[in-house]
Design a protein that fits this description.
Blueprint: H1 17-21, E1 32-37, E2 43-48, H2 56-67, E3 70-76, E4 80-86
Antiparallel strand pairs: 1-2, 2-4, 3-4
Length: about 90
C-alpha cells in the first residue's frame, strides 16, 4: 500500500478565480446580444456593451462578411454605440 502522508492531495483549481477577485476588464462589463423578430423570417440583432477602444466599423465589416447580412453602427445618447445586423 502507498503511504500518502508525505504528499498533499491537490485542491481544485479555478482558472477564473483571479478574474473574480479583481476589478479588471470584464469583471462587471456585460455585452448584450438581442434578437428581435421582424416580418416572417427576417430579424434584427443588436450588439451592445463592447469596449470603446474597439473599432466598431471593423467588427461590423467582419460580422457582415461572416453572416452574409446587412448592418450598421448606431449612436445612442444613453447606451453609446450599438451594432445592428439585419438578417
Amino acid at each position: 500500500m502507498v503511504d500518502l502522508g508525505t504528499h498533499e492531495i491537490p485542491k481544485s483549481f479555478d482558472p477564473f478565480g483571479e478574474a473574480k477577485e479583481s476589478d479588471g476588464p470584464g469583471a462587471k462589463e456585460y455585452v448584450h446580444i438581442r434578437i428581435q423578430q421582424r416580418n416572417g423570417k427576417k430579424s434584427l440583432t443588436t450588439v451592445q456593451g463592447l469596449k470603446k477602444e474597439f473599432s466598431y466599423e471593423k467588427i461590423l465589416k467582419d460580422l457582415k462578411k461572416e453572416f452574409c447580412c446587412n448592418g450598421n453602427v448606431v449612436n445612442d445618447k444613453e447606451l453609446g454605440k450599438i451594432i445592428q445586423l439585419q438578417v
